[in-house]
Inverse folding.
């Protein structure tokens, strides 16, 4: 299911957090939202999953306007792996994942055998079934993220939203999580920090800077060295990955001294 | 390979939960009957049951008038008030702790009870005028509503309630109310002062049937509504954004929870005074036993809060007979050690 963001802006206390962003996330594709800290990545996602009402603009999922339908409807269309998960409680992994069934249940409904089967399958899918009866807060960071993806799966939504899903994960766990997301094949919008993850896993990228869309397109179109220098303030170059041969981003500080420079490197173009 | 846990990590789950609920209902009935019997004149449990039954069934009084009066007019309303206050404060505590995701939240942190105390103390000491006309309970209720409105206005930004602002505004309003209350106490004459002190520390003594109606209705309505909100509150208790992603209208739920908890607290405080600690500790103790799922936490808190306060009230009137000790002193003295023992168990379980 396609997600269309039209001219979304968010103004809080006279500060413009997002200034008129447009984006179309195609069905079954992974769309990456990249940009420096504070560029508005999370805010944009929050407008899509109905946590924050845009000051102007609209978000459509399929044909439906997110902000003209109910909160529960949103829970049936978008599943979120957010950044704000509280750990000061003793929910078991099973209880956390079962919450994904909430939008499907009436206020007095109990979980059925079918619900429990969905929860079990989701936990198996992320290889966390062994931890069903562990306390969520006692798991490692990577395990917790996988459990949250399992909860998103139990929501059985066409759209998956990920807000910096690889934060605080070791490198192995980061790649494992992103591989899993790609396997799922859902319409995915992910706010990402690592430019190489963005190039390797995303079909399309949206580059945000200070609340505005700077570029939108395929990773190769969006991440050119001059633009990266302007937005992130780093020098960069694209080299072939020694193991996979795919384009790989290497970066260096913009204030780096001259003797670090490889004089004959033709790809280093980002220096101002 | 990691060890695979085969069953729920919570102390009580599955059929154990049903057993716990049944046991608490039985404990509440037994504690109530026993507590009605104990006092300056002891009445055997069998006669308590007979008197209560004769009133409930509308039959003729089978007991002597004195026993009948003691049991039905004095003791029963008192014990029921203790039970309702315990339930109401516990439910309000669950709501507020989830609302702000702060383990220290309780009905007394939000300025509601300070406002109620101020209203009550003005009514107790002024003797004339508009406030006195409301009566102590009416003035307490008015005071709590005024403080609620102030906290509400201070803690919202652009129509959204901010959790941390809610705690801070509540604490500030509570201190302000307490300051004014203290000043009025200093001006009060010694006769009034004893009444004020007793009220501030909370008491279910002297309860009559008339005191129970509003509180019973408030507790029942809130309890029924909360039964429908368990899933949403589970989602809210792990995070605002997560809850929104799970289809919860976070802002609306916050407002409703704050209003429900405040009205419940106001209803308790206006008839029973400032009974502290129950609303803070009962929900935590319950979570340590059944886990954090609100669909289990609500019914168990409702029952456990009632049993706890009925028993505490029993202690307050038997420990120093024939004198009575304010109930607020014993809620903490008896509750804290029990709670610390549970907390120790949790630390072991999380390892």
């Amino acid at each position: 299911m396609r997600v269309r963001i039209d001219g979304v802006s968010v103004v809080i206390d006279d500060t413009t957090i997002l200034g008129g962003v447009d984006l179309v996330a195609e069905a079954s594709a992974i769309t990456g939202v990249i940009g420096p800290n504070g560029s508005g990545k999370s805010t944009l996602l929050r407008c899509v999953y109905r946590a924050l009402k845009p000051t102007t603009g609209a978000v459509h999922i399929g044909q439906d306007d997110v902000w003209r339908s109910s909160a529960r409807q949103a829970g049936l269309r978008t599943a979120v792996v957010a950044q704000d998960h509280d750990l000061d409680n003793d929910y078991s992994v099973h209880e956390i994942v079962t919450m994904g069934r909430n939008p499907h249940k009436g206020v007095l409904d109990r979980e059925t055998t079918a619900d429990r089967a969905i929860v079990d399958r989701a936990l198996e899918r992320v290889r966390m079934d062994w931890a069903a009866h562990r306390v969520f807060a006692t798991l490692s960071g990577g395990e917790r993220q996988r459990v949250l993806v399992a909860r998103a799966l139990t929501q059985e939504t066409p759209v998956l939203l990920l807000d910096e899903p690889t934060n605080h994960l070791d490198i192995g766990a980061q790649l494992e999580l992103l591989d899993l997301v790609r396997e799922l094949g859902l319409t995915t919008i992910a706010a990402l920090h690592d430019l190489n993850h963005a190039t390797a896993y995303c079909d399309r990228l949206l580059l945000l800077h200070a609340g505005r869309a700077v570029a939108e397109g395929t990773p190769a179109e969006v991440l050119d060295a001059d633009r990266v220098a302007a937005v992130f303030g780093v020098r960069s170059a694209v080299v072939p990955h020694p193991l996979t041969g795919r384009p790989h981003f290497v970066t260096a500080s913009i204030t780096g001294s001259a003797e670090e420079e490889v004089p004959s490197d033709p790809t280093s173009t980002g220096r101002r | 390979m990691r060890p695979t846990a085969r069953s729920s990590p919570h102390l009580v789950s599955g059929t154990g939960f049903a057993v716990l609920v049944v046991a608490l209902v039985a404990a509440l009935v037994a504690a109530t009957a026993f507590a009605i019997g104990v006092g300056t004149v002891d009445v055997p449990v069998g006669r308590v049951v007979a008197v209560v039954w004769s009133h409930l069934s509308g039959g003729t009084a089978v007991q002597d008038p004195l026993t009948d009066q003691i049991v039905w007019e004095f003791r029963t309303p008192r014990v029921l008030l203790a039970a309702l206050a315990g339930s109401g404060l516990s439910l309000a505590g669950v709501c507020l702790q989830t609302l702000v995701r702060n383990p220290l939240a309780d009905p007394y942190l939000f300025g509601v009870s300070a406002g109620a105390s101020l209203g009550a103390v003005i009514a107790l000491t002024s003797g004339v005028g508009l406030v006195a006309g409301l009566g102590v309970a009416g003035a307490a209720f008015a005071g709590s509503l005024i403080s609620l409105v102030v906290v509400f206005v201070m803690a919202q930004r652009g129509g959204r309630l901010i959790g941390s602002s809610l705690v801070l505004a509540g604490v500030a309003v509570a201190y302000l109310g307490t300051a004014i209350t203290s000043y009025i106490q200093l001006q009060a004459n010694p006769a009034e002062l004893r009444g004020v002190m007793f009220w501030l520390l909370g008491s279910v003594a002297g309860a009559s049937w008339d005191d129970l109606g509003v509180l019973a209705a408030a507790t029942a309505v809130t309890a029924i509504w909360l039964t429908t909100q368990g899933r949403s509150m589970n989602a809210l208790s792990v995070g605002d954004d997560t809850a929104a992603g799970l289809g919860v209208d976070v802002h609306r739920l916050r407002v409703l929870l704050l209003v429900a908890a405040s009205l419940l607290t106001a209803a308790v405080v206006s008839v029973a005074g400032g009974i502290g600690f129950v609303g803070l500790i009962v929900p935590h103790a319950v979570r340590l036993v059944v886990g954090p799922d609100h669909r289990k936490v609500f019914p168990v808190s409702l029952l456990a809060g009632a049993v706890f306060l009925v028993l505490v009230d029993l202690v307050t009137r038997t420990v120093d007979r024939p004198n009575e000790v304010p109930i607020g002193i014993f809620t903490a003295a008896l509750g804290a050690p029990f709670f610390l023992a549970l907390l120790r168990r949790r630390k072991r379980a999380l390892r």
